[in-house]
Amino acid sequence: MARVSVEYQDNIARVTLTRGDKMNALDKAMIEAIVSAGQEVAASDARAVVLSGEGKSFCAGLDMASFGALAAGGDNNWIMERTHEDANLFQEVALVWRRVKVPVIAAIQGAAYGGGLQLALGADIRIAAPAAKFSVMEMKWGLIPDMGGMVLLPHLMRSDALRQMTYTARPVDANQALTWGLVTSISEDPLTEALALAEEIAGKSPSAIRAAKRLIDIAESHGRQDVLLAESAEQGKLIGGAEQMEVIAANLQGRAPIFK
């Protein structure tokens, strides 16, 4: 069965988890499908991406029934294999969206637990329904988050809040998630809002948007000197370019810019 659908419209890629009857729980087929979808979108001409899950929940985390057999096998050497640059397959579920060169917006309803939360963390922006729930769930199963969460969470949360969520596995509601930095905003209709935001972003200069995402990634992981140099390098490539000149012309003429 298909686990993920990818659709393109108006320069926006819509990526949907399609295992709604299982709360979009992650079995190996779905993990592979998510990574494949991220790679496809990264190679496309999309200017923004909306990531969502069908049904009642965004993603309830690992399908423990599917992965019980994997744990029972006793050979955990695969965990250390770097199959996707600096990550293994499981970590790439989240990190592939950071490798996508344009903004990714996650629309979250219901549960975003464990691996599902880490998948959402791979997005640039997260819009949650008021009733959404979030959990670093792994401790419930005697595990630690290992799908890229510890690369992404410390950039979003205070250390004490992160530690509490990790140590207890307790779910938190959307308001608490917003306070702690796990989500960007709360909306009664997160998918509609995500699509509207993607449309707004897709109307900006594609080269400037991509440069901005690269620059933010550098700013979050490098020192002052590298960031200042990156600012200058990215700006130097944009100033006077065809897209920047079109933005100027459109602003002066009171119209929307048109990018080829």
UniProtKB/TrEMBL annotation:
The keyword Lyase applies. One of its GO terms (biological process) is fatty acid beta-oxidation. GO terms for molecular function: enoyl-CoA hydratase activity; isomerase activity. It is an enzyme of class 4 (lyase). Gene3D superfamilies: 2-enoyl-CoA Hydratase, Chain A, domain 1, Lyase 2-enoyl-coa Hydratase, Chain A, domain 2. Pathway: Lipid metabolism; fatty acid beta-oxidation. This is Putative enoyl-CoA hydratase echA8. The lineage of its organism: Bacteria, Pseudomonadati, Pseudomonadota, Alphaproteobacteria, Rhodobacterales. The gene is echA8_7.
